[in-house]
Amino acid sequence: MAEHYYTKKPKSRIIPNKFTAVLRGNELVFNTSSGVFSIKKIDRGTEVLIEYCIMEDGWDMLDLACGYGPVGIALAKKFDINVVMTDINQRAVSLAKKNCIENDLKEIKIVSGDAYDKINSKFDTILLNPPQTAGKQVCIRMIEEAPEYLKKGGILQLVARHNKGGKSLSKIMENVFGNVRDIAKKSGYRIYVSDN
Fold first, then answer.
1. Hey, how many other C-beta atoms are within 10 angstroms of the C-beta on 184?
2. Residues forming a β-bridge with 194
3. Confidence of residue 107 (pLDDT cuts 50, 70, 90)
4. CATH number of the domain that residue 146 is part of
5. 70 inside domain
6. 79 occurs within a structural domain
7. Exposed/middle/buried for residue 188 (C-beta within 10 Å: 0-12, 13-18, 19+)
8. 42-63: average pLDDT
9. With 60 as the cut, is the pLDDT of residue 5 above it?
10. Smaller CB count within 10 Å for the chain: N or C?
11. Please, are residues 46 and 38 in contact by the beta-carbon 8 Å criterion?
C-alpha cells in the first residue's frame, strides 16, 4: 500500500519534478517530488482555493497542510500579506522553502509540524485543502482547533469536493463555528467559509 503524503518522513525514493503554473495572474515555479501531494501540476481543489478565496492586503494568513507551498506562495505574490506555512511532511516543507526562494518570497515563514503544533500566533484567515487521505479525524482536528488560531472575526477557508467529504466537513465547520457558507463552486469543489 502506498504511503499517503500526510506523513512526517516519506520513505518513497525521491523523484524530483518541476513545473510552472499561472495562479492569480502570476507565473510561478514549483519544485515537487514523489512523497508529496500533486507532484505533476496544481490539483484542482488547490487551484480553486487560490483563485476564489477571500484575501485582503495586510492580513496574516496560515497555509495549513501547505504541501510544497502553492497556496501561500501564489497569494503572497498577489497580496501584501504575512504568510505562515506548515506541514507535517518534512519533504514537502523543504520543497516549500525551495519554492519560496525560487519565487523570490524569502519573508514567508515555514514550519514543520502536525497541524497547529508549531503555530503560536493568530491569523485573519486559515486556508486549508484538507488531507482527506490521512483520514477524517485528521481533518476534523484541523477544523476543531482552528478558532484558537484565528483572530476575532477571522475566517477559516476550506476547499473540498462537495460530494466527496466536503459536505460532512462543512457540517463540522458549522458545529464548531456556528456558521458556514459557500463562496465558490467550481468543478465539483466548494470553498466553505466559517467566521470566528
1. 17
2. 156
3. very high
4. 3.40.50.150
5. yes
6. yes
7. middle
8. 97
9. no
10. N
11. yes
Q: Is residue 115 part of a domain?
A: yes
Residue 38, in any domain of the structure: no
- Retrieve residue 138's grid coordinates: 485528521
Q: Would the pLDDT of 37 be above 90?
A: no
Residues in the chain: 196
Residue 187 region by backbone torsions, left for phi larger than 0, else alpha for psi between -120 and 50, else beta: left
**Whole-number Å distance between alpha carbons of 184 and 7:** 30
Return the residue matching grid coordinates 483563485.
Answer: 51
Total domains in the chain come to: 1
Of 110, 134, 139, 132, nearest to 6 by C-alpha is: 134
What is the DSSP code (8-state) at residue 24?
A: T
Nine cell digits for residue 134:
490521512
The boundaries of the domain holding residue 147 are 44-195
- Looking at residue 56, its amino acid is E
